[in-house]
Amino acid sequence: MLKRLLCTAVVMALGTLPVAASEEESEYGLLVDKPGAEETFIYCTACHSERIVAQQGLSRTDWKALFVWMEDEQEMEPIEEPDYSIIIDYLSEHYNTDRPNFPKR
Amino acid sequence: MSEDKKMDHQSVLELYEKDPVEADRVFLGRVAHKDRRGFLKGAGLATLGGLLGASIPFHRNMPSGLIPVALADENLLAGKDGLSMLNDRPLNAETPPHLLDDAITPTTRHFIRNNGIPPEDVSPDNWTLTIDGLVDTPMELSIADLKSKFEVVTMALTIECGGNGRAFFNPPAKGNQWTYGAVACSNWTGVRLKDVLNAAGVQKEAIYTAHVGADDHLSMKEGKLAISRGMPIEKALTDNILIAFEQNGEALHPHNGAPLRLVVPGWPGSCSQKWLTRIYLRDIVHDGPKMTGTAYRVPNRPVEPGEKVDKKDFDIIERMPVKSLITAPATGATVAGEEVEVRGHAWSGDRTISEVHVSMDFGVTWQKAELDAPVNSGAWQNFKTKVTLPQKGYYEIWAKAVDDAGDAQPHAINWNPKGYLNNTMHRVAVRYS
What we know:
By secondary structure, chain A is mainly α. Chain A is built from 5 helices and no strands. Chain A has a domain at 32-97: Cytochrome c-like domain (Cytochrome Bc1 Complex, Chain D, domain 2, Orthogonal Bundle).
C-alpha cells in the first residue's frame, strides 16, 4: 500500500510543493528542466525514480543501448515516436559523458 | 531537525502504513469523499503544514491517504545515520568514509544496495528458507529450525558492492555512482551455509548455487526476480559464509535484508542475497537475473577506457580485489598540530592483508602502518599510524594495502565497461593550519 502511494505521490501535482529536498529540484525532480524533461520523467519514473537516470553520463549510443536492455530484461514497454527521440535527445544532451548535470550530494 | 519532529514523522508514517484513511482522519481531520479525495481543514491542515514546514496551496487536490512525499522521504533512511543517498526508489545509499571508522560497522552505518522492491512483511516468525535443486534431501527451514538444527556462529564479515568506486570511471560507467562507502564489516550471526548444504546432501552434479530473495522486480511483474545470483559450489562450502539472522546482535535492518540473508564476505555484495527465501543447487553456472550479460562481469583481458567489449569476452567476478579505506582523518579536515593519526581498514577477498603503507607526500615516501590481524576469516583489518606534517599547508594522505598474494592497490583505475572493482588508493585531503 505504502509503496503504491509513494509511486503515485511522485507523479502527482505534489511536485509543485515548495518543500522539495533541495532548492535546485525542478518539477521533474533531479532532472534538469529543459525540453524533454517532462517526457523523460513520465516514462522513466514508473519503476524507479529519476535519480538513477540523473546519475548517468552516457553517449547517445549507450543511452540507446540502455533502452534496449530496459526493454529486453527489465520489462520496459518500447517507447513510440516522437517520444523516443525526444527522450534520447534530452538524455544525450544533458546526461552525456561530460556529465554537465551530475547531481551534487 | 528536532527530535520531536522526527517522532512526529515516525508516528504519522506508521499510522499511514496501517490505515491511510484513518490516519487522514486522526492527523488531518479530513474524511474521504467518494472520489477518494478529502478536504484538509483547520487544525488538520495546520498540522500537516507544520510538519512540512510550508502551507499546501493545492491541498484540495491531495488524494485521501496520500503521504506527502516530503514526509516519506524523511523516513527513507530510518535506522541509518549519516548515509548519503544515491537513489530513493529503489533505495541505494552509501556511508561517507569517516563514518566507517568503527572496527565493526554499526547497523546504522551499513550501506544499502537495493535492486528491487523490498518485501513488506519481514517478520521472522513465518519466514521459510527452501534448500533444493541438486540435493539429496530438499528442506524447508524456519528461522527457528536454523537456530536449533545448526551451530550458530557470530562473525565479522566484510561486504562490498561490486560497483563501489564506480563514480570515478571515465568515461562514466552506468549504474549507481558509488564513491567509497559501499563497504562495511558488521557482526553477523547465523549458521554456516556449508552446514546447511551438507545436511541437505550436495549431489555430485552440483556445480553452482542459485539464490532467491523475497524482493519484487521494480516492474512488479508477477514472478519476476529483481536479482538472483549464485557462486561455485566449492566457494559455497567454505567456512565463512553465513545464512544470517542477526546483525550486530539485533534483527537485521529491513534494507539490509531482514529477517534472513546470505553473507558471502569478499565477493561482490550481490552474492549475499537479501530477504533470502531459497537456495537451490544447479549443474550449470546459474543464469538468474544479474548473472548473465555484463552484470557483475569484467572483460577477460585489459581494455582501453571506453572500449566496446563483446559480451562473450566477459568473466563473472569472483573475489573482490585488495583495497583500503582511510576513515580518519575525514577528507577536508583541518588539523592544528603536525602529528596526525591516520586510521582505516583494509581487505582483500579470500585473502589476508599483509601490509598497509601510508604516504603524506603524494606517494614519494611511505611508512608502514600498524595492522591488526583479522578477527576472523572474512573480516576487514584495521590499520593505524601517525604521520608528521613538516610544515603548514595542504597535504594528501594516501593508503596502499598489500595482500598475502603480493597484490597491491594501483594508482590508476583498471577501466571496465560496467565500472566494477575500482580498488585504487584512497586519498584524503588534510590542511595543517
